[in-house]
Amino acid sequence: MSIKTATIDGVATIEIARPEKKNAITVAMYQAMADAIAAAGADNAVRALVITGQPGIFTSGNDIEDFMARPPGQGSDSMDSPVFRFMRALVECEKPVVAAVTGAAIGIGTTLLLHCDFVYVSDEARLAMPFVGLGLVPEFASSLLVPQLMGPARAAEKLLLGEPFTPEQAVECGIANAVLPAGEVVNHARRIAARFNALPPGAVREAKRLMRAPQREAVLQTIRREGELFSARLRSPEASEAFQAFFQKRKPDFSKF
Ligand code: COA
After folding, report:
1. pLDDT of 39-73, one tens digit each?
2. CATH of domain 3-183
3. 164 C-alpha vs ligand 1 centroid, how far in Å?
4. Taking the domains of the chain in order of start, what are their residue ranges?
5. What are the pLDDT digits (tens) for 217-256?
6. What is the layout of strands, in order, in the sheet containing 178-180?
7. CB count, 10 Å around CB of 39?
8. Does any ligand 1 atom lie closer than 6 A to the CB of residue 234?
9. Using a 6 Å cutoff on CB, does residue 106 contact ligand 1?
């Protein structure tokens, strides 16, 4: 299993631990993360969650090989697949979630941050949402939330061109709280999460719910709409060319489409 979980002093930590594949997330890992978020939500001893990766890599996003071999179902089936269960679990998590972005955060590595309450990023990290270049479409409500956060012009750089951006830019546009030295980011995130041990959990829960309520339906609806297109595009010739190019370590050739 490449997801490690531990609960210490009121903080449940979910650690993505597959460094040999740059923490690429498989279907089984999505399921494990969805289960871990649900378990933390149900455990009265847990006051907050931390999601983290490995030194130098937060996650390289969806495991491309796994996605090719086992793409999520299409239509109404797609919402039952582990990746969507993970998305729903994070969106609906009532406890504060703190992300410790230990390194590169690609694809869902960046889009999951849009659903965390606090985001601390290593000064060595790079963020990117290269979905279109892979023949795919934005996911996890990023097509809704990224333009809202940074405006449509800068969102087009990130979502249509897939341009990477720095931790400082992530802070500037409101995706992240702060940039920290690489060696400090996890401990800082844990300290922020541990502060909820001294706060009343009912008030925290209601406040988080109020803060998320105005967008909740739109976020879930966008996740569904994106998910249907994403699943269909995983089976497209454009995505197939992009995935093959990635594994053959060459540039994709979209000239024939
Ligand atoms: N899915 C599957 N395997 C992946 C992966 C992914 N998302 N990201 C990395 N890997 C694998 C590589 O295939 C390689 O496997 P190998 O050792 O068997 O050849 C291994 O992880 C190391 O990756 P590599 O690309 O050699 O490392 P790097 O340090 O040069 O680059 C990244 C790191 C994260 C920049 C690069 O791996 C990358 O761009 N990954 C794809 C990111 C992506 O497009 N994600 C979006 C998916 S929707």
Report:
1. 999 999 999 999 999 999 999 999 999 988 888 87
2. 3.90.226.10
3. 15
4. 3-183
5. 999 999 999 999 999 999 999 999 999 999 999 999 999 9
6. 3-8, 11-16, 48-52, 97-101, 118-122, 178-180
7. 15
8. no
9. yes
